[in-house]
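Below is a filled-in request sheet from our internal design queue. Each sheet records the structural input a requester submitted and the sequence that came back. We keep these sheets so that new team members can see what a complete request looks like end to end.

REQUESTER: design group, bay 2
PRIORITY: normal
MODE: inverse folding
CHAIN LENGTH: 343
BACKBONE (tokenized):
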């Protein structure tokens, strides 16, 4: 099945029914806990200013308790993408794993509040909901401590096959790929999607993630992925080459459709031997690049599931990314569909 031709509303040959959702996402369900604090707080908690550190359960509970007043909102890469699809006017659904605790309730509420149904997986009473504790000092510097919590234990039993079968495109987050159970869940989800005439997409997430899972990612791209998202560093890491052009040729031979972003240089859409370059949307001032790739994927998939040409899909992705990097935070502050123009 060509990645540039999504399943029709009803496929009489395969028996596939009309998709209920444009995109169904699977990823780490995390809550962003954002608090303003002094430099002295960083010193007292032994935090390295401006860093991102993975932490364990005891440290997550300790730091969360020490923060005091904070703002809590749902986060996670693929979740950001689903929120972006909804903001553009598409229907999206999200599958992650949270516990039945306060932060798990926050995550589910936030997703449903923006019109994204959330399937929270099974409950693991021994492990809290994942969170990213973000300490903002008076100079606006952000220090992040990420606790993956129960989100990283997602497995096949946590999936909702009915939801997966109901999305025109399945979107999977590479960050979730650190455990064998998650790898099995990815392959199961891809099988369910393809069995129902749907497309499967994967985001490489970051170059360190690619380094850890290169063999598995290559296998997924060749066997299960119709649409691949990544940036220049990630795709070069995937194929272990120094030149972007070489990586683009290689991915063109292995994947039906690849979309590679390059920051201010825009993106390259690779469909077999064809390469389409799309310029980045101008931004007066870049304040925070967090979520840029997530929202680009949202825009591209919204365009693709709307039946638009690949160039237009890239343009919508660039519009969504430009909005999110123009302010602090990984999600849009305006309804993205208001930024789209006809033509």
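RETURNED SEQUENCE:
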């Amino acid at each position: 099945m060509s990645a540039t031709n999504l399943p029709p509303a009803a496929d009489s040959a395969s028996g596939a029914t009309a998709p209920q959702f444009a995109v169904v996402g699977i990823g780490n369900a995390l809550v962003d806990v954002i608090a303003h604090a002094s430099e002295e707080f960083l010193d007292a908690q032994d935090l390295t200013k401006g860093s991102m550190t993975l932490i364990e359960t005891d440290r997550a509970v300790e730091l969360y308790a020490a923060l005091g007043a904070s703002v809590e909102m749902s986060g996670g890469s693929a979740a950001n993408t689903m929120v972006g699809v909804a903001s553009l006017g598409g229907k999206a659904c999200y599958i992650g794993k949270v516990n039945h605790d306060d932060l798990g309730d926050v995550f589910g509420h936030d997703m449903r509040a923006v019109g994204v149904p959330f399937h929270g997986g099974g409950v693991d009473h021994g492990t809290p909901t994942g969170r990213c504790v973000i300490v903002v000092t008076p100079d606006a510097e952000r220090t992040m401590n990420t606790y993956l919590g129960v989100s990283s234990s997602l497995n096949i039993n946590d999936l909702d096959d009915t939801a997966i079968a109901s999305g025109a495109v399945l979107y999977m987050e590479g960050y979730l790929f650190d455990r064998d159970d998650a790898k099995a869940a990815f392959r199961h989800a891809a099988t369910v999607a393809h069995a129902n005439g749907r497309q499967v997409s994967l985001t490489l997430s970051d170059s360190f993630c690619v380094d850890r899972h290169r063999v598995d990612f290559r296998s997924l791209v060749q066997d299960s992925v119709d649409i691949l998202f990544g940036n220049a560093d990630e795709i070069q890491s995937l194929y272990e080459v120094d030149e972007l052009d070489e990586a683009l040729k290689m991915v063109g031979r292995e994947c039906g459709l690849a979309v590679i972003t390059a920051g201010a240089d825009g993106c390259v859409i690779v469909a077999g031997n064809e390469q389409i370059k799309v310029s980045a949307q101008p931004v007066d001032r870049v304040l925070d690049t967090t979520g840029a790739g997530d929202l680009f994927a949202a825009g591209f998939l919204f365009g693709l599931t709307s039946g638009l040409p690949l160039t237009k899909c890239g343009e919508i992705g660039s519009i969504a990314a430009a909005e999110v990097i123009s302010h602090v935070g990984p999600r849009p502050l305006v309804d993205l569909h208001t930024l789209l123009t006809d033509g």
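SHEET NOTES:
- Residues 199 and 220 are 13 Å apart (CA to CA).
- Residues 7-14 have pLDDT under 50 and may be disordered.
FILED BY: M.R.
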